Amino acid sequence: MASFTLSAFLCVAVLSSITLAAEKASPLAPCPKGWVQNNKHCYQYFPEKRSWIDAEMHCVSFRGNLASVHNADEHSFLKTLHIHDGDMRAFWVGLSDVYMKGTWIWSDGTKMDFEKWHSGEPKGSGGNKCVISNCDGKDWQVSDCAKSYPYICSLRWR
Q1: For residue 50, how many C-alpha atoms fall within 13 Å in the half-sphere facing its CB?
Q2: How far apart are CA 48 and CA 65, in angstroms?
Q3: 3-class secondary structure for the chain?
Q4: How far apart are CA 44 and CA 35, in angstroms?
Q5: Tens digit of pLDDT for each residue in 67-100?
């Protein structure tokens, strides 16, 4: 069985996302069943806990990625989507430094143009770090990528 490093997987996932972004969906097509549309993306909350890489791989299986956040409205929307399912736990978003320690990038390859770090974050040393968002006012926090949390996947939709 082949084995991939987290960095190699992330590189493939980003390149796959860029390729998928070039594909065009019908502008009037609704999101797939079970997904919620917000602007040009479809989102789905998954309550089962997975590691960051397992959650990302699950999202990639839908031709998406863990959700990226580019403004305050998206940040609020994701928290609302998560709370709507009655879940107040932290959840994975697609931000990590698995490619290069200390360099935060979104798993979908988009630019980090918005930040919502909790006070004192990002913090942590050693190993790969991934980001959770909280619904209890703590916003983004760094967590060990091997820990398990629920997650939100995002699909680009036009």
Answers
A1: 18
A2: 16
A3: CCCCCHHHHHHHHHHHHHHHHHCCCCCCCCCCCCCEEECCEEEEEEEEEECHHHHHHHHHHCCCEECCCCCHHHHHHHHHHHHHCCCCCCEEEEEEEEEECCEEEECCCCCCCCCCECCCCCCCCCCCEEEEECCCCCCEEEEECCCCEEEEEEEECC
A4: 5
A5: 999 999 999 899 888 775 555 679 999 999 988 8
